């Protein structure tokens, strides 16, 4: 019996008017995988996330979540996805707890389930003492931690994180990375981590290099170094990005 | 997803609206001050200028302040409807709209839940106005406070649905000022809120037809009659139809496959 990947994208394309922003994008993320979607600003990462969360509807290609086509079974797909968007999405005038309860209710969780899971998740990100603070009072790093805790409330099996560390200090960035990687390792959750920060690609990570709406390479970081014959991920990325432009 | 999930979701959306409302106490007072200013200044000033003959549902001559009270109640509902719109546009700019939109529950339900949550707040404010209006001797019969409830709910739903529809078309918070000029003012003034339609008909037949076509007029009239335990059936039908049309178009506008979401969020 074959196991469906958590996320499978096939021949995905998208355009805004005449401007094509994604072209024939294909890759997959298996359960337990931490996959980095690496690309410069404007590469198409956020558009891809918007398609995978059905904020936009894809007209070209297929997106499958655990084998289900998101166009046909959107509700079942969305139940399995936890999202951290690039743009902050917390309600600043509500407390941390109130934000968590709101999110839990949108996924049909009871107040008791929300309270129990919320307390556990907020403890895991080290913010138990701030749970009754208004989000407005939290630092940028703390707000991101709340967003991570929130996206796990409904126990998703696939995490989509769009530039989750932008604007954070080094300690907060490392915390976010470690936390998500631990979730993949220990709870078999799949994660697609979009970033333009090359140093977020760890040694064992799977990488999908997206540039100008096209996948330039996909594989383990070590494979990409071998493929490009470069000593570092930065050099490999620059090579992959420039290759086709030079051609 | 079963019925209990839908109920929990509705409770969550309503709670959030309620918490935001409590956080913005100024919103409550400004919603009340606006019609009270009209009542205290405009109605007093025009008391002797605008004569109101005996028209249904009133059985005798009434002071002008009594005539415009239903219009001012409808004004509260109209402003609240536009606040639903403003809150949706604000949520979109602040990002929290995305959390709503990636809920596994269908969008028509999420939007309807938002609408109902806003409607509850509107009706509470309308009743607060009715209580304060007692100071101006605006006192419908006691049962009028009960019979007006369905009229308030239906009117609030219609204006909230209009707000939702507008929010699906407004690109930025800054554009919201246009709503004031092109929606709120024309709807309010081209209606029976401030003057009886037979007055308008004498002055301009065209304006009379515009007022008749304005769903706000029907909200005012439904409330006016309901305060005296009477049903204005044409107004009720118009409001039900307008609510259904506005809500359907709003759901269409928020549908990523069909509506305006794609074009708007293309950035």
- Class derived from helix and strand content of chain B: mainly alpha
* Distance between the first and last residues' Cα of chain A: 42 Å
What is the 3D shape of chain A? globular
Main sheet characteristics of chain A: 6 strands, mixed
What is the count of DSSP helices of chain B, taking H or I runs of 4+ residues? 12
Please identify the structural class of chain A as seen in this structure.
alpha/beta
Q: Could you tell me the strand content of chain B as a percent range? A: under 5%
* CATH architecture type of the largest domain in chain A: 3-Layer(aba) Sandwich
Query: What name does the CATH topology of the largest domain in chain A carry?
Result: Rossmann fold
Q: Identify the CATH homologous superfamily of the largest domain in chain A.
A: P-loop containing nucleotide triphosphate hydrolases
- DSSP strand tally of chain B: 0
Describe the protein:
The complex is a heterodimer of chains A (247) and B (267). Chain A has 247 residues and is of the alpha/beta class. Chain A is 37% helix and 25% strand. Chain A folds into two domains: 1-80 and 159-247, 3-Layer(aba) Sandwich (Rossmann fold), CATH 3.40.50; 89-155, no CATH class. Chain A is built from eight helices and ten strands. Chain A is globular and about 50 Å long. The model of chain A has no long low-confidence stretch (mean pLDDT 89). Chain B has one domain (3-264). Chain B has helices spanning 3-23, 25-45, 64-94, 96-101, 107-132, 144-169, 176-189, 197-203, 205-213, 215-226, 233-254, 261-264. Chain B starts with a helix and ends with a helix. Chain A binds chain B through residues 16-17, 50, 53-57, 74-76, 78-79, 81, 83, 85, 87-94, 98, 101-111, and chain B through 1, 4-6, 8-9, 11-13, 15-16, 19-20, 23, 94-96, 98-106, 110, 256-257, 261-263, 265-266.
């Amino acid at each position: 019996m074959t196991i469906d990947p958590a996320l499978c994208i096939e021949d995905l394309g998208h355009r805004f008017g005449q401007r094509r922003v994604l072209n024939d994008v294909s890759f997959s993320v298996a359960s337990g995988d931490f996959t980095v979607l690496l690309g410069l600003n404007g590469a198409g990462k956020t558009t891809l996330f918007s398609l995978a969360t059905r904020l936009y509807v894809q007209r070209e290609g297929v997106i499958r979540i655990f084998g289900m086509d998101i166009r046909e079974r959107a509700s079942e797909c969305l139940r399995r996805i936890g999202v951290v968007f690039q743009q902050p999405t917390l309600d600043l005038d509500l407390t941390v707890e109130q934000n968590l309860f709101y999110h839990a209710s949108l996924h049909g969780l009871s107040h008791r389930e929300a309270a129990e899971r919320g307390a556990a998740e907020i403890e895991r990100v080290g913010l138990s003492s701030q749970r009754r603070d208004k989000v407005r009072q939290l630092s940028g790093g703390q707000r991101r931690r709340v967003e991570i805790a929130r996206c796990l409330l409904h126990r998703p099996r696939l995490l989509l994180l769009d530039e989750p560390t932008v604007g954070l200090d080094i300690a907060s960035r490392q915390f976010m990375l470690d936390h998500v990687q631990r979730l993949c390792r220990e709870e078999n959750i799949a994660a697609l981590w979009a970033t333009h920060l090359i140093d977020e690609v760890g040694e064992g990570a799977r990488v999908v290099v997206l540039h100008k709406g096209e996948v330039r390479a996909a594989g383990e970081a070590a494979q990409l170094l071998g493929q490009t014959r470069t000593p570092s991920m930065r050099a490999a990325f620059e090579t992959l990005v420039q290759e086709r432009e030079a051609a | 997803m079963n019925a209990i999930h839908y109920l929990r979701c509705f409770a969550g959306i309503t709670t959030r609206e309620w918490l935001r409302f409590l956080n913005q106490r100024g919103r409550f007072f400004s919603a009340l001050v606006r019609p009270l200013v009209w009542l205290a200044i405009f109605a007093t000033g025009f008391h002797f200028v605008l004569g109101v003959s005996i028209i249904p549902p009133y059985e005798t001559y009434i002071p002008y302040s009594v005539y415009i009270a239903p219009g001012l109640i409808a004004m509260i509902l109209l402003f609240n409807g536009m606040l639903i719109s403003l809150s949706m546009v604000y949520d979109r700019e602040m990002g929290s709209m995305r959390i709503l939109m990636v809920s596994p529950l269908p969008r028509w339900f999420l939007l309807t839940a938002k609408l109902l949550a806003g409607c509850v707040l509107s009706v509470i404010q309308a009743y607060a106005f009715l209580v304060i209006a007692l100071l101006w001797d605006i006192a419908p019969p006691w049962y009028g406070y009960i019979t007006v409830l369905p009229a308030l709910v239906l009117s609030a739903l219609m204006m909230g649905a209009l707000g939702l529809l507008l929010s699906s078309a407004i690109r930025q918070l800054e554009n919201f000022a246009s709503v004031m000029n092109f929606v709120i003012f024309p709807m309010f003034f081209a209606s029976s809120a401030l003057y009886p339609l037979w007055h308008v008909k004498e002055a301009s037949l065209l304006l009379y037809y515009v007022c008749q076509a304005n769903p706000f007029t029907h909200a005012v009239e439904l409330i006016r009659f309901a305060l005296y335990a009477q049903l204005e059936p044409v107004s009720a039908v118009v409001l039900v139809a307008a609510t259904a049309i506005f809500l359907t178009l709003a759901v269409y506008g928020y549908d990523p496959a069909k509506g305006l979401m794609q074009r708007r969020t293309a950035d």
